[in-house]
Design a protein that fits this description.
Blueprint (H helix, E strand, L loop, with lengths): L4 H14 L3 H6 L1 H10 L3 H8 L3
Organism: Rhinopithecus bieti (Black snub-nosed monkey)
Protein name: RAN binding protein 2
Length: 52
């Protein structure tokens, strides 16, 4: 299934809003990066997997 950037951002916002802890939010970074990659948003994908 093809996802658009808007679809990915909507999904990420809903997940981050319901995540109980900052640790859980950061653990999902790789999955979010994968979704952005599938939507061909490579820069956003890269920013989700970079270590801070």
């Amino acid at each position: 299934m093809r996802r658009s950037k808007a679809d990915v951002e909507r999904y990420i916002a809903s997940v981050q809003g319901s995540a109980p802890s900052p640790r859980e939010k950061s653990m999902k970074g790789f999955y979010f990066a994968k979704l952005y990659y599938e939507a061909k948003e490579y820069d956003l994908a890269k920013s989700n997997v970079q270590w801070n």
